[in-house]
Amino acid sequence: MRALLRRRSVLWPAFIAVHLVIAAACLWPGVTGDSFNDVTGFYRVWAENAVHGNGWPAIDQPWVYPIVALVPMLIPLIGGPAGYGAIWLLQVSLLNAAAFGVLISRNTVPRTRAAWYWLAALLALGPVALGRLDVVSVALAVLGVVALATRPWLAGVLLALGAWVKFWPAAIVLAAVVAAKGRWRVLIAAVATTAAVVAIAWFALGARYLFSFVGQQSGRGLQVESPFATPLLWAAWAKIPGIRVYYDTGIYTFQVSGPGSSTLAHIADWGMPVAVAAAVLIGLVAVLQKAEPRYGTALLALALTVGFCAFDKVGSPQYHAWFAVPVMLGLMVAGRRFALPAALVLASTVLTQLIYPWFYNAMLALNPLMLVVLTARNALELVVFAWALVALWRAPSTKGRS
Questions:
Q1: What is the β-pairing status of strands 244-248 and 222-223?
Q2: Which one-letter DSSP state was computed for residue 40?
Q3: Which of 30, 46, 230, 336 has its Cα between 20 and 30 A from that of 70?
Q4: In terms of Cα–Cα distance, which of 113, 75, 99, 96 is closest to 23?
Q5: Which keywords has UniProt assigned to this entry (predicted)?
Q6: Which residues in the chain come in under a pLDDT of 50?
Q7: Which helix (H) or strand (E) holds 355?
Q8: Predicted local distance difference test score (pLDDT) of residue 348
Q9: Which DSSP string do the residues of 85-111 spell out, in sequence order?
């Protein structure tokens, strides 16, 4: 079986099949509702408005994304309005293929294990895995973690570029700077890449709103998928007066409001920096106690990446696309020691697909079964975060290899 799994003739057909299935779910009208609307709606409209002189996001006007996110949104315009979605899917599939090819370029069990896991995670997440901007940052992050062991400077460049598409790969950069052997090369490369992006955007493009993405999330309320919103959803189901689910037309998401919502949102604003600080502190302790660098980096990357979602007041389904990357790193460097979080992340990802797109309306209608699914998914995020911290704390005493 191991020899079969290591054969590229098996891996590549599996890769193609997974991407065809997900692409079909994205493009087949009615199957997944509006799950592809971010691409054919928002991304296309932003790109068209920009090229038609109606303002460039992050340059002429504030934007929720870092400026490099414009690049993958502009490329599909070559297919025109009608072909935008198909070109997007082709673009991100080719990017994934490049990352997948680099991942399996060494025909080893750890690399193959990680490749199969990535395919499983993509299928578990469903249409959102290809139908959101996060797919671009994930592919760059996969390339980054593959390069981490042998070319830390290249890892820094790739992860920094990923963070300028969607901020979360900064979690892996931070983990590498804290725990990896090549921490200085990662840091210098990431800082140099960021400086290059800023210089080009600021001086060549005149991007007045280059850093507008930093504050775009601060004023929003509790999105229904956030773990901080879960108690309020159950309170709404119990018909406690004043609690309601509503659609915010300013940021185009469903949120929950009512007694306690502002307090929970305020806690969420502080929850993420506290969680990040706790993870980094435990990581530093592990480093000082001589934890194995690669294992420590994977654990800290997992804690920080999951923490970015579990302690956020947004909690969008596409955030679960991130989780596979630190798990893949863990599977490559620690094997069976990462089996439990790998299984928990897959389980939470499957639940995420059930929530969105398949039964999202039922959840919004406060269907108790879907509230149980959402609660279980959010609980799994916290369990994975806690597992990573405990494993990181115990990492110096962990012996042996898988």
A1: unpaired
A2: I
A3: 30
A4: 96
A5: Cell membrane, Membrane, Transferase, Transmembrane, Transmembrane helix
A6: 400-402
A7: none
A8: 98
A9: HHHHHHHHHHHHHHHHHHHTSS--HHH
- What's the confidence (pLDDT) of residue 9? 77
Instruction: Check if the beta carbon of residue 212 is closer than 8 Å to that of residue 62.
Output: yes
Distances from the Cα of 82 to the Cα of 39, 71, 79, 355, angstroms: 12, 19, 7, 29
Instruction: Name the amino acid, one letter, at 185.
Output: R
Domain boundaries, the chain: 2-397
State the DSSP string of 197-259. Answer: HHHIIIIIS--TTTTGGGTTTTT--EETTSGGGHHHHHHHHTT-TT-EEEEETTTTEEEEEST
Residue type, 98: A
The structure tokens 């790969």 sit at 169
At 306 the three-state DSSP class reads helix
Q: Give the pair of three-digit tokens for residue 182.
A: 């090549």
Nearest residue to 138 (alpha-carbon basis) of 169, 94, 174, 93: 169
The sign of the dihedral angle between the CA atoms of 141, 142, 145, 146 is negative
Tell if the pTM clears 0.90, that is, is over it: yes
Residues 32, 127: contact at Cβ < 8 Å? yes
* Burial (0-12, 13-18, 19+ Cβ within 10 Å), 247: exposed
CB 165 within 8 A of CB 133: yes
Task: Tell me the two tokens of residue 241.
Answer: 């007066």
Helices 293-310 and 170-179 cross at an angle (nearest 10°) of 150
Give the end-to-end CA distance of the chain in Å, rounded to a whole number. Answer: 18
Residue that the structure tokens 């993870």 belong to: 279
Query: What pLDDT score was predicted for residue 283?
Result: 97
Distances from the Cα of 304 to the Cαs of 185, 187, 301, 364, 367, in angstroms?
20, 17, 5, 29, 32
Task: Give per-residue pLDDT as tens, 332-378.
Answer: 999 999 999 999 999 999 999 999 999 999 999 999 999 999 999 99
Please state, in angstroms and rounded to a whole number, the distance separating the CA atoms of residues 260 and 274.
Answer: 21
